[in-house]
């Protein structure tokens, strides 16, 4: 009689144990995606001057220097339209007017010292397509005594918007790949995606912990790279939380 009772009890427990073993498992993954978006334009202010014993000589000298600048641009396959006016045109005009009305006594002093009496400045804005082109032309311009300002990088808003959408897909694919690793190890499979969140449920946004770890392990350089890239690229990235349901 006891044997029959034990068999009956086992028969009652077996469905419960099977149900427990086949119960879905909830898996939460934090995943990231990132893309670099290069600038669509790089602009630099270039400046130079022409000098001479007369105003006309100084103007001819500055025209000659401009011709050399244009030769360099042509050699680098940069169109002439890449050179444009800047917001300092008013300053140039004032400086030119000042040279034209220079004090005769000062001009005499300059003549006595062997220095040119007149100096005519010119300033332009040069716009190119990439940081590499900017760096190459900068070296050649400086070789002919042209002063080249720091590059200003202009991001393409359309490219950034496209990248923002692409990194979401990258993050989601990364999350699923990680989830498949867990499922395989447990002898299970991914049944469905339960939830996707870009905000997370904790005090920190998803992926912030990873960033903090990078700063700790790689030092200040890692922190600097988050904000400034030498080639002017903008890193577009996102982190998401994805909850999967795993089943047998």
From TrEMBL:
Region annotated Disordered, chain positions: 96-117
Gene source species: Sphingomonas pokkalii
UniProt keywords (A-Z) are: Signal
One Pfam annotation, family name? SIMPL
GO BP = DNA damage response
UniProt signal peptide = 1-20
What is the recorded name of this protein?
Answer: SIMPL domain-containing protein
């Amino acid at each position: 009689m006891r044997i029959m009772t034990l068999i009956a009890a086992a028969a009652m427990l077996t469905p419960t144990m099977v149900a427990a073993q086949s119960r879905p498992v909830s898996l939460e993954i934090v995943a990231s995606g990132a893309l670099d978006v290069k600038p669509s334009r790089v602009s630099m202010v270039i400046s130079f001057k022409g000098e001479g014993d007369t105003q006309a000589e100084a103007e001819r000298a500055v025209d000659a220097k401009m011709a050399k600048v244009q030769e360099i641009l042509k050699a680098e396959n940069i169109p002439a339209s890449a050179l444009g006016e800047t917001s300092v045109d008013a300053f140039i005009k004032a400086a030119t007017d000042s040279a034209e009305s220079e004090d005769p006594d000062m001009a005499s002093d300059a003549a006595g010292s062997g220095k040119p009496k007149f100096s005519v400045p010119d300033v332009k804005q040069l716009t190119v397509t990439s940081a590499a082109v900017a760096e190459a032309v900068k070296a050649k311009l400086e070789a002919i005594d042209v002063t080249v300002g720091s590059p200003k990088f202009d991001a393409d808003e359309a490219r950034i918007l496209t990248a923002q959408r692409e990194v979401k897909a990258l993050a989601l694919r990364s999350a699923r790949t990680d989830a498949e690793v867990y499922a395989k190890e447990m002898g299970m499979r991914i049944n469905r995606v339960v939830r996707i969140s870009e905000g997370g449920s904790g005090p920190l946004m998803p992926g912030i912990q990873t960033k903090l770890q990078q700063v700790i392990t790689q030092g200040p350089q890692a922190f600097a790279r988050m904000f400034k890239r030498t080639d002017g690229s903008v890193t577009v990235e996102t982190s998401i939380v994805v909850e999967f349901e795993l089943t047998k």
